[in-house]
Amino acid sequence: MTAQGQRLTIAPADKADDALHDAVAGLVPQLSSSSPPPTLAQLQRIIEDPATTLLVARDTGRTVVGMLTLALFRLPTGLRAWIEDVVVDDAARGTGVASALVHAALDEARAQGARTVDLTSRPDREAANRLYLRLGFARRATHVYRYELGAAG
Questions:
Q1: Exposed, middle or buried by CB within 10 Å (0-12, 13-18, 19+), for 83?
Q2: How far is CA 47 from the centre of its chain?
Q3: What was the pLDDT predicted at 145?
Q4: Contact 34, 85 (CB under 8 A)
Q5: Could you state, in order of their start, the residue ranges of all structural domains in the chain?
Q6: What is the pLDDT of residues 74-129, one digit of tens each?
Q7: Bridge partner residues of 67 (DSSP)
Q8: Phi/psi of residue 76, nearest 5 degrees
Q9: Which pLDDT score is estimated for 150?
Q10: Are 75 and 68 in contact (CB under 8 A)?
Q11: pLDDT computed for residue 134 by the predictor
């Protein structure tokens, strides 16, 4: 897969090793200032969870330049797909990495039988919001609520 002239490999993470853990630990703070990166054991649980697919984008040097999590779960109303934690390394932003990651997630969701894919994005992430609209996502008239349960392990 290419992103603006650069060769990218996008694939599901298959094991949590030190190199992937270090890459994720470098990406998470670029996405969220309030969430710590997962531990190596937590990262392995994410990768092993059948409901989640951690898609990783690597450049030609095999350096991780971005990631995205696709969650697929069954409800009485059907198979639902949700994209979360899309992040591209600062040095690779604007090169098509996020677009390539989202397309890979959409392909996977389609292959698994999902009819729709949802995501949320904070309003202040203007470039991300423009990207999602450009890729064909439609803004929905809904409210998103959050209940804080406290620290989770």
A1: buried
A2: 13
A3: 86
A4: no
A5: 2-134
A6: 999 999 999 999 999 999 999 999 999 999 999 999 999 999 999 999 899 899 99
A7: 56, 87
A8: -55, -25
A9: 76
A10: no
A11: 96
Q: Which residue has the tokens 């992040």?
A: 87
Render pLDDT for 17-68 as a digit per residue (tens, 0 to 9).
999 999 999 999 999 989 999 999 999 999 999 999 999 999 999 999 999 9
Three-class secondary structure of residue 120 per DSSP:
coil
Q: Does the predicted TM-score (pTM) go above 0.70?
A: yes
Which residues touch 7 (CB under 8 Å, ≥6 apart)? 1, 59, 60
- The CATH superfamily assigned to 2-134 is Gcn5-related N-acetyltransferase (GNAT) (3.40.630.30)
Closest to 25 (Cα-Cα) out of 69, 67, 59: 67
Give the residues across from 127 on adjacent strands: none
State which amino acid sits at residue 6.
Q
